[in-house]
Design goal:
The complex is a heterodimer of chains A (148) and B (731). By secondary structure, chain A is α+β, with helices and mostly antiparallel strands. Chain A is built from five helices and five strands; from the N terminus they run E-E-H-E-E-E-H-H-H-H. Classes of the chains: A alpha+beta (148), B alpha+beta (731). The complex binds FE2/S2 (inorganic) cluster (2 copies). Chain A: This is (2Fe-2S)-binding protein.
């Protein structure tokens, strides 16, 4: 199967229903995408698929063949992604950091779509769990990008 | 309290220059070592001889420094705080430091002993030692310059990273002096800086790890890659005490793609494969026959948390006194009105976002390397040695930055994957990384114990006159460190150790063993007992027709520190307003107040709630926190945010239910944790009273729950005595 990940085409030899998460982590060795729950609950495994924040643990690899997949490793290749990362650094959002790859990508997807999101937009898009409770800083960081 | 005094006494040791001891030889670096005392784990004050902890500073010729932190980073910002403290006394900007975790034992065994990252103890125990370390290193650099220039050390000063001789205008960079300084003896007690001159301590320095953690570049145990390793997934017996008899479709499973082998473990079956996903898929397909086996803490087949709660509620037995004053029994006997209530709080999962994992590699010389998360390296090495049949000296532990911990990564028999990883690596003759799925984590986590307390109190026109509490159950410090009933703070803290003046009190513990493998959860006993105590305090206020805020103030008349803190939280919330009142958005809201004295710090909290569709919504939380003194205010503020999140989460939604000996939730679908849209706004006031330094990681949590519950009582008239709120209907 051929997957387009971070701008390059990768031939991967996996069972077709292997979750994209494990293809990214184990076949490509990109470990910035995290396993948290495996059942689409937490969002630690978020990647962008054609720009849409998607939980890769519940996404069979063969369902995204031909689509453009972006992981945290190349988030700074886009202008919005770069600004989101800067906002995350500036606001010191991360604590343990384990959820933050997913949070940064969710924010990138949101702000690419809606440059000036309302609180309701943020509530709707930023649904990833953070056990360290960085939610207020996440919101502040999203705001700082939209207000910049 | 006594713990801190004991610590302070043990802090007298001067750093030792170990740079000539053979290790790190050739690095041309000044290497200082110092002994840190053991954090006296709750209940471990009983351990007579506390072993030491090592911390190392290496000053390189390029002027940068490597600091080996005794404490592991898990999001609390401890690496940055350690660099701030050492940098302050050394006079080297914290940004010139790299910080890594100090290895367990090994070549640094001249110190021996233990350490723990927990109990909100890292900064406060590290603070005096790290200052001493920094100032000793600075004195040696100054002395090296003095010898080189033939002047008195007293004529020299430093600027960040540079020794200066004002008389002659000569300057030398630290990096150029490091090699000469390393031959010098360590000064016995060089002077510490006057805190008034602090340049970095007390400032909001940015954390060192934020960029890596915002770009996916921070690695955790689950990301460890070892050459030639296989991956493993497993399934535990549904109850502790069962063991696998057979895997009826073993041949089929071993024929699955990528599978290396099926392995029988103690109370579990594992599949080892080329890839984790292959192992996971195979173990999911396994048909396993479980039979009764042996376990130290077998889970009774019919165990249910609801029935256990009722058992605790009815438990009789010896009440071991924890604290007492006056004559509580007599006062209650003669009181006109006695208020009685039973409070309980559920089991809770840690739910750290990184699932547990461990990687084990046996080397050709028979030694063992381990990669894993851990909050207590020396204890883990000891346990790993026992599991592998090796000496501790044959084990190298690579501690990984923690993807959250909250108490999850202490040594709990049956809750840590590393003994299984060791067994698997041995069995297959290759390195193995074992990852527990989230489902296996929930099954074998060491949950916060279900707890219960029975309250009796009397109240007069000026406040409570008597309070009698029986706390029923078992604390994790008894389980893991054999603290006896009555001397196990984890079993009663938050009901014991309160600061209010009540003339007649009796706080006792009735020990009742907990069938689950219980553990430490953020704020430990405080995570539930302050909820119970502060809730009951509001019940007394209500019975006495007193305002809960004013009543607390009057009960604190003897303590300026606590009064100040309570007044402060009132102030930042715009003045105490219990409500109910109508908010700008049209919702009806109320506020509740509570206090706690956890981990050497003091906290006062006000929470504002409304009810929406039968569910409680927490809008705002105000926290006044007095940790005595502060190293990094932005880290403290972040920890308060985090503690409020977890405190709100446990109060609103968290509960690990057992039925038929098994937890009914195995993942975040059945065990909800706080969602982003449930997060309250948090307003923090840090009060530096100058009292001895307390913790900051946990202290923000305990008063959050009762403040919410007290607000709910004011709003709805419903007094909640059993958490979480989600199991009650406020419709
Ligand atoms: S790991 Fe995919 S949502 Fe949790
Ligand atoms: S920063 Fe730890 S889970 Fe979000």
């Amino acid at each position: 199967m051929q997957l387009n990940i971070n701008g390059a085409t990768h031939d991967v030899d996996v069972d077709p229903d292997t979750p994209l998460l494990w293809v990214i982590r184990e076949e490509l060795g990109l470990t910035g995408t995290k396993y948290g729950c495996g059942i689409a609950q937490c969002g630690a495994c978020t990647v962008l698929i054609d720009g849409v924040a998607t939980r890769s643990c519940a996404t069979p690899a063969d369902s995204v063949a031909g689509l453009e997949i972006r992981t945290i490793e190349t988030v700074e290749d886009t202008e919005i992604g770069r600004r989101v990362v800067e906002a995350w650094v500036e606001n010191e959002v991360a604590q343990c950091g384990y959820c933050q790859s997913g949070q940064v990508l969710a924010a990138t997807a949101l702000l690419s779509d809606i440059p000036d999101p309302t609180d309701a937009d943020i509530d709707g898009a930023m649904t990833n769990l953070c056990r360290c409770g960085t939610y207020n800083k996440i919101r502040a960081a999203v705001r700082s990008v939209s207000e910049a | 309290m006594g713990v801190i005094d004991q610590l302070a006494r043990r802090l007298g040791q001067a750093p030792v220059n170990v740079s000539r001891r053979g290790f790190l030889a050739g690095s041309g670096a000044l290497v200082l070592a110092t002994a840190l005392p053991l954090r006296p784990v709750r209940g471990q004050e009983i351990a007579a001889e506390a072993p030491a902890v090592t911390a190392f500073l290496e000053l390189r010729s390029d002027g940068t420094a490597l600091l080996r932190s005794p404490f592991i980073e898990g999001g609390q910002g401890i690496f940055t705080a350690m660099a701030q403290i050492v940098g302050e006394e050394l006079d080297l900007a914290p940004e010139n430091f790299s910080v890594e975790i100090a290895p367990a034992g090994g070549p640094f065994g001249i110190m021996g002993g233990y350490r723990l990252t927990g109990g909100s103890m890292s900064t406060r125990t590290g603070y005096p030692v790290m200052r001493q370390l920094g100032t000793a290193a600075r004195a040696m650099l100054v002395e090296a310059a003095a010898r080189e220039w033939g002047v008195e050390a007293s004529e020299l000063t430093t600027e960040p990273g540079v020794v200066v001789h004002e008389g002659s205008g000569r300057r030398a960079a630290y990096g150029d002096l490091a090699a000469a300084a390393m031959d010098l003896p360590v000064p016995v007690s060089p002077a510490l800086k006057d805190p008034a001159d602090f340049r970095w301590i007390g400032t909001a320095l940015p954390r060192m790890d934020v960029r890596a953690k915002s770009t996916g570049r921070q690695n955790y145990a689950i990301d460890v890659e070892v050459e030639g390793m296989l991956l493993a997934a497993l399934r535990h017996a549904p109850r502790l005490g069962l063991m696998p008899a057979s895997v009826t479709n073993q041949a089929e499973i071993e024929a699955m793609r990528g599978v290396h082998s099926v392995q029988m473990l103690d109370g579990a079956v594992a599949v080892v494969a080329e890839k984790f996903w292959q192992a996971r898929r195979a173990i999911d397909a396994a048909e396993i026959d479980w039979i009764e086996g042996e376990a130290q803490w077998p889970m009774p087949a019919g165990f249910s948390s609801a029935a256990f709660r009722d058992t605790l509620a009815g438990a009789t037995g010896e009440v071991v006194e924890v604290e007492a004053s006056g004559d509580a029994a007599g006062t209650l006997q003669s009181a006109d009105m006695v208020i009685e209530a039973t409070y309980d709080a559920p089991y809770m999962a840690h739910g750290q976002l990184e699932p547990p994992s461990a990687t084990a590699r046996f080397n050709e010389d028979g030694t063992l390397d381990l990669w894993m998360p851990c909050q207590a390296p020396e204890m883990f090495v000891g346990a790993a040695a026992a599991a592998a049949g090796l000496e501790a000296s044959q084990i190298t532990l690579h501690q990984q930055v923690l993807g959250g911990f909250f108490g999850r990564h202490f040594l709990y028999a049956t809750a840590n994957p590393f003994p299984q990883a060791i067994a698997l690596a041995k069995a297959v003759g290759r390195p193995v990384k074992l990852i527990w799925t989230r489902e296996e984590d929930f099954l074998r986590d060491a949950p916060r114990p279900l707890g219960l307390a029975r309250f009796r109190g009397a109240v007069g026109p000026d406040g409570p006159t008597a309070l009698q509490v029986e706390v029923v159950g078992e604390g994790p410090t008894q389980r893991w460190y054999q603290a006896p009933p009555g001397q196990d703070p984890s079993a009663t803290e938050g009901i014991s150790g309160k600061t209010y003046a009540i003339a007649n009190t009796h706080i006792g513990q009735i020990f009742h063993a907990n069938p689950a493998v219980i553990g430490y959860w953020r704020a430990v006993g405080h995570s539930m007992h302050d909820f119970m105590y502060e809730g009951f305090l509001d019940e007394l206020a209500q019975a006495g027709g007193l305002d809960p805020f004013e009543m607390r103030l009057s009960m604190l008349s003897g303590s300026e520190r606590h009064r100040t803190l309570l007044e402060r939280v009132g102030e930042i919330s715009g003045g105490w307003t219990p409500g109910p009142f109508e908010a700008e958005d049209g919702t009806t809201r109320a506020r509740g107040v509570a206090m706690a004295s956890p981990f050497g710090s003091e906290a006062a909290v006000i929470a504002e709630v409304s009810v929406d569709g039968g569910e409680v919504r927490v809008h705002q939380v105000w926290v006044a926190l007095d940790p005595g003194q502060v190293v990094n205010p932005s880290t403290v503020e972040a920890q308060v945010q985090s503690a409020v999140a977890l405190g709100t989460s446990q109060t609103l939604v968290e509960e690990l239910v057992y039925e038929n000996g098994e937890p009914t939730a195995r993942n975040f679908d059945m065990y909800p944790i706080l969602r982003p849209d449930q997060m309250p706004q948090v307003h923090t006031a840090i009060v530096e009273s100058g009292a001895p330094m307390g913790g900051v990681g946990e202290p923000g949590l305990p008063a959050v729950g009762p403040a919410i519950v007290n607000a709910v009582a004011t709003l709805t008239g419903q007094r909640i005595r059993s958490l979480p709120l989600s199991k009650h209907d406020f419709g």
